[in-house]
Amino acid sequence: MNRKLRRANLKASEPTPHEIGNVINSMRQGRYEEAAHRAKGLTERFPDHGFGWKILGTCTLLLGRNGDALPLFLKAAGLLPEDPDIHCNIGIIYYELNQLNEAEYYCRYALKLRPNDAIAHNNLGNILSSLGRLDEAEACFRRAMENNPDLAQAHYNLGCTLQTLGRLEEAESCHRRAVAIRPSYEEAYASLGNVLKEMGRLDEALESWKLSLAHQEDWTNALQRLTNPLLMDGDLTRGPEYPAADAAEGQPHPSPRELSSHLAASSVESLDRKYRVPSHEHDGSAEAGALAKRDGNAPRPLRIVLIYPPLWQIPSADLNVPEGMPFGPPATAGGPVAISRELKTITQGVLSIAAQAKKAGHDVRVYNLFNAPWADIVALIAETGADVYGVSGYNSNRRGMGALCALIRQYHPHAHITVGGPFATTLPLETLRYYRAIDTVVIGEGEETFMELLDHIRSHRPAVGIPGTAWRNGDEVALGPLRPRISDLDTLASHFDYYSSNIVMTSRGCPSKCSFCGNPVLWGRKIRFYSTDYCIDMFRKALARLPVPYLMIADDTFTANQQRTLKMCDAIIGNKLDVLWSCSTRVDAMEDEVLHRMRRAGCQEIMIGVESGSPEILDRMHKGITPEMVLTVTRAAKKYGMLVHYYMIVINRGETPDTLQASIDLIRAGRPNSYDLTPLMFLPGTEDYGHLCQQQGLTSDIFFRNDFMDISVERKRKKDLDTVMQHVYCSIGTIGGYEYTVAEREAVATLLPDVPAVHVELANAYLRAGLFDKATAALTRAEELGFPIGNIILNQHACSALARNQIDTSLDFLERACRSFPDSTVKGNYDKLMAWIDSRATGHVKPCLLCDSVRAQDFVFRADETASGLPVLQ
Fold first, then answer.
1. For helices 219-227 and 657-670, angle between their N-to-C axes, nearest 10 degrees
2. Which one is the CATH code of 502-732: 3.10.180.10, 3.30.450.30, 3.20.20.70, 3.80.10.10?
3. Domain boundaries of the chain, sorted by first residue
4. If pLDDT is split at 50, 70 and 90, which confidence band does 200 have?
5. Disordered: where is this region (predicted)?
6. pLDDT value at position 318?
7. Most buried by CB count within 10 Å: which residue of 90, 273, 702, 705?
8. pLDDT, tens digit, for every residue of 4-24?
9. Which residues of 351-390 are buried (b: 16+ CB within 10 A; e: fewer)?
C-alpha cells in the first residue's frame, strides 16, 4: 500500500508525456496563447518542474511580452540550470531590454553548455556589436556560420558588421549569401542596398531596395506609424527634477596618475597638439603687450580656454565609460553613430569669440574635442589651467558639454565656466539647473557679451546682471536683460586673422519664419551684413592659408539682398580672387542676373532649402515659396552650369502619401544634381518643437534626463523610416541626383566660354560619355584659363587614363596629386587603384571605379584630416 502511494506521488511531481505533447503541439502550431494557458496550468500543478516555466516563458516571449517572460525564464533556469535554450532566451530578453552586459553573460553561459549552437553564437555577435566590440562580434558570426552555413541571419549580421568596419566588398558578399539562402529576406536586401550605395553603385542599390520593398508590407503603413505620433516618447524620462546634476557632481573622474599608462603613450603636449586648433603667428602677444603698455595698472590678461565638446564621454582602451545617463554613450545607440562632417567641425561662433579675446590681449587656446576619447580629455583638462573656460555646443553634444564642465570644475574649482551655442541659448536656465558646474550662459550672439563677462572677471566683479547672460546665484538661477544684436558687424575682429577655415559668413540673421529652423534663435530674424570690403578682406585672409581655394559661404540666405550679392560678386571678380565657392539660398531671392554674376565670380554650387513639394506642407512650414518657384530657379541655375542641391525634409507634420508623392514629383521635375532626405527634427525654440510639446505633453527637461543624441520622427522607428526612404529613392529613380548631359554642358560652355570651371565640368561630362580626347582638350582649356584647383584636373586625367586602360599613367597623375595635397578624394583613388593593381596579381579582378567628381568641396579635406575638423594649414 505504501509503495503504491509513493509511486503515485512520484508521478504527480511532473506532467505526463501526454500533457507535455499537448503544450508542445499548441506552440508549434502558433497557438501561443493556448500553449501559454496550458503551460501556466502545469506551473501551478508542478511548480518545481522546469518544463512548464520554460514553455510559459517561451510563449510569453513569442507573444512579444519580453518583460513578462524574463522572470519566467529565470525561474526555469533555477530549476533547469543545464538547459542552454533557457539561458539563450534570457540573453535574448536582456538584449531586447538593452541590458547588454547581462545579455552577454547568459549567452556565453548557453554556449558553455552547448558550444556548437549557431543561434547562440549569432545572438552573442549581436550583443557584442551593440556593445561596439565589432571584432569580437565578427568572430561570433563566423562561428555561427561554421556551425550552420545556411543560417541566413548570421550572414546578414556579419554583413552589417563588416559594413561598419568599412569592409564593403566582404559585406556585399555576406548579404548576397543571406538572400540566396532566404530569398524573401527584406532586411538583407535593404542592407545590401545600403552597402552598394556606399560603394557608389547607386543603380544596383536601387534595385536591391526595390526587392526589399517587394517583400515588405505596404510602405504607407510605415508612413502612418511615423506620423502618428510625431515622436515615440513612451520611454522618455521626464522632469522637472535634476538627477543629471546630482550624478555630475557625484561622478568621480580619474586622476592623471590613474591614467599614467595612457599618459606614457600620449603626453599632454602631444594631446595639446592633437586637439588644439592651430592659430597663426598673429597670436595676440602683440595685443597683450600693447594692452599692458597703455595701462600699467590694468588687470593682467586672462587665460582663456574655449572648447567644442564631444557628444558624450567616449570610451577607449584606457578608460571604460558606462553607457547611458548621465554622460555615457547612448544605451540605445546599438553601435557606432553616423556623424556628419559639419557637426565635427568647430563652430564659427567659437572662433569669432576667440578672435575678440585675442584682439583684446588675452591668452586664448581653442580645442576641438569632438572626437576625443574621455581618457584624452581628462588628461588634457587636468593639465590645462585657465581663468575662464568657455564651452559651446548643440543639442547633440549637450551631454558632452555637461560632462566637460563637471570635469573642469573638479580639476579647476576656482575657474569661471561659461557655456554658449544653440542649445544653451534656447534653454539657459535649464542648463544652469541641471549642470551645476556652469557659472554663466552666454545667450545668442556672443562676442560682446563674452567680452563684457571677461571685463567683470578681470576686475573681480560678480558675473551677474550682464545683458545677454544667465547666471547662478547660489542655488538660484537668473536671466539677464536682452542684449541688442551687433549692428555693425565690421567692428568685430576677423577670426581669419588667427585661425584657418574654409567656412565664411558674410551676414547674420534670417527674416524667414520656417517652423523647423532654430537659426533665428541664435542670430535673430533681422539680417545684418558685413560690408563688401570686410568680406573681400576676409576671403583674402582665408585663401592665403588654405591648401585648396574653396570657400563655403554659410549665410542662411546669401542672396537675401540681391543688389549686395551683385556687388560682392563684382568685387570677387575685380580683385581677381581665384576661388570656387558655394552658398545656401532661397528660391524667392534668386534672379537670373544674380545667378549669372555668381557663376562668373566662382560659385560652383547652390544649396536650396526646398523641404517639400507639397504646397500644403510648405504653407504649414511658413516657407513662403511654391514648387513652381523652385523649378524656375533650378532651370536658371542649371543654364549657367551650377550644381544644384535640394534640402528636403520627409515625414513632416501632416505628411501623407500624397504630399510625399508631391516631393518625389518635384525632385523628378527639377532634376537637382544632388539632394538630401532628412527626417523632421525637433529643435528647442522652433514652432515644430512647441507643437510637439503641446501635443504630447513634453517639457525641455527631456534633454537633460535622457541620453538621446537628437529627437526626430525617426526615434525608435528606424526600420519604418528606412522603408519610407527606400520607397522615395526608388520612386525618384536616382540616389545621387541627376547628371548634366554632354549637350547641357556644351551649351553652358558656349554661354560662358571664359569661366574655367565650366570647362572642367564639360570635361567630366565627356569623360562619363567615353569621349576621352574631348575631355583632355576641355581640361587643357581649363588650365589655360587658370582653373585654381589643380588636383581636380589631375584626378580627371587619372580617371580618363584608367578608362583607356593606361594604368601607369593613371597612377602617375594620382601620385602627382597626392604630392601636391593629399586630399581625401585623390588619396582615396590612389589607394583604390593600388589595391586593384595588387588584386590583379592574385587573379581577383573586378572593375576599378575611381571617384571622378569635379565638385570642389570633395577636394578640401586631407585624407588624414586633423582633429580640429578644419583644413590643414599650408
1. 110
2. 3.20.20.70
3. 2-198, 244-479, 502-732, 745-859
4. confident
5. 1-20, 234-294
6. 79
7. 90
8. 434 444 445 788 888 888 888
9. bbbbbbbbbbbbbbbbbbbbbbbbbbbbbbbbebebbbbb
Rounded Cα gap, residues 197 and 213, in angstroms: 16
* Residue corresponding to grid cell 534570457: 90
How far is the C-alpha of 112 from the C-alpha of 81, rounded, in Å? 12
Same fold, 502-732 and 745-859: no
pLDDT above 90 for 124:
yes
First CA to last CA across the chain, in angstroms?
101
CATH superfamily, domain at 745-859: Tetratricopeptide repeat domain (1.25.40.10)
C-alpha pair distances (Å), 95 with each of 123, 327, 332: 9, 21, 11
What pLDDT does residue 225 have?
A: 94
Query: Which numeric CATH code is attached to 2-198?
Result: 1.25.40.10
Separation in Å, CA 395 to CA 398, 399, 425, 524: 5, 8, 11, 19
Residues 6+ apart with CB under 8 A from 178: 152, 153, 155, 156, 159, 185, 188
Query: What does each C-alpha distance from 296 to 284, 302, 358, 621 come to in angstroms?
Result: 18, 15, 19, 57
Give the pLDDT mean for 152-176. Answer: 96
Mean pLDDT lowest among 22-31, 239-248, 443-452, 813-822:
239-248
- 189 burial level (CB within 10 Å; 0-12, 13-18, 19+): buried
Per-residue pLDDT reduced to its tens digit, 781-840: 999 999 999 999 999 999 999 999 999 999 999 999 999 999 999 999 999 999 999 888
CATH fold for the domain made of 244-479:
Rossmann fold (3.40.50)
Beta strands 440-442 and 469-473 are antiparallel
- β-sheet bridge partners, residue 365: 305
What is the maximum alpha-carbon separation in the chain?
117
Is residue 674 a contact partner of residue 645, using CB atoms and an 8 Å limit?
yes
| pLDDT tens per residue, range 733-778 | 999 899 999 999 999 999 999 999 999 999 999 999 999 999 999 9
Residue 712 in grid coordinates: 526626430
Q: What are the grid coordinates assigned to 405, written together? A: 564642465
Phi-psi region of 501 (alpha: psi -120 to 50; beta: other; left: phi over 0): beta
